What does this fold into?
Amino acid sequence: MTDKPDPSDRSVRHKAVSIGNRRLKPATMMMGHGYDPRLSEGALKPPIFLTSTYVFEKAADGKRFFEGITGVRPGGAEGLVYGRFNGPDQEILEDRLALWENAEEALAFSSGMSAIATTFLALVRPGDVIVHSAPLYAATETLIGRILGKLGVTWLDFPAGATQAEIEAVMAAAKAKGRVSVIYLESPANPTNALVDVEAVHAARAAVLGDGEELPPIVIDNTFLGPLWAQPLAQGADVTIYSLTKYVGGHSDLVAGGCVGSEKVLTPIRMMRNTIGTITDPHTAWMLLRSMETLELRMTRAGENAATVCAFLRDHPKVERVGYLGFLEPGSRQADIYARHCSGAGSTFSVIVKGGEAEAFRLLDHLLLVKLAVSLGGTESLASHPAAMTHLSVPPARKAELGITDNLVRVSIGVEDADDLVADFEQALLAV
Ligand SMILES: *Cc1c(COP(=O)(O)O)cnc(C)c1O
It folds into this structure.
């Protein structure tokens, strides 16, 4: 007798999600979910499986696994096959990522952009129209406008804070142009922090495009608030996309992406990933497993730190305004969306200093702890200047429309001591 499990029987992996009637929280599940030490010599932690291919026990197994991989039989891969399709580290990562939004499935990608690009390639065909919120992450705008544009796909957008009636009008115009195949959102918008009303988008889709089987999925980039402070699947989104490079990776030491949703909506995206090879590698997947063990701790601390820093900055005489989700005007439409969609204000915000580029640059050049770099969601605090950096190529009129002014500094707060961060901003503002 042996109690060694059959490695091809993946049901033996530890996937219990409750104790009695108590459903376990994602923060608890990050330590062991989806990994059975008995499959790896008793190792407490999952090894990094550096292999490009997997041995089948029987030819019939290989056939069955390939049927799942290629979609001949629904339900996905039953076994490990080849590194472009799956691997133990990636599968454990996907099982754990799905838990934060209580989703059926997740897919891991080599970057946030490869998650976004693979999703679009899986869903659009020539002549289709994409409806999206605006503004979007610059590379996503390039992908939709210039790359999918070359393939005969067009787009129509609505501003991030739009009402249901405004969204319906854009959807109706899109429907008149062609088949609407994707509704793509990004919330909050960067750097304006305007929130998209996902519930209104969901209602607008039903009102304009009906409620049939062929409805375009609502796909949302939840990088800025997810997965802790916003879970858009609960408001009617079908796919949530993450740049795992940011809060989920959380240490500014890896690049990766993810998609979360139902098995049905993720299946074509998985097939596309299998074809073009945009899956993340085993080592990065392992780093993400480690990162996710502290995800809630890190994001909670960063959120608390940001609240302290923003409270200090708001009252500072050299600061005109702080664009932070914690400071939405009570009774405003944005505050209403926030109350329905978010459980925290995040740790990424804008500081609008009094003056122009010179004053903003002086603040940036005098920060000692806070590093001058783009990106967000790491353990360390970062600051940058969108007008001169991430949004440099945006035409002046569009910049003005989006509120990307020369005196705007973008900040991502990390997990340092909050009072040390306040001291850093205090001394740097003296130089402004
Ligand atoms: C960083 C980022 C991306 C792109 O992610 P990569 O991992 O750099 O490819 C997409 N969307 C948002 C909102 C981001 O911040």
User: Anything to note?
Assistant: The chain has a mean pLDDT of 94. The chain has 14 helices and 14 strands. Residues 381 and 413 are 4 Å apart (CA to CA). The two ends are 75 Å apart (CA to CA).
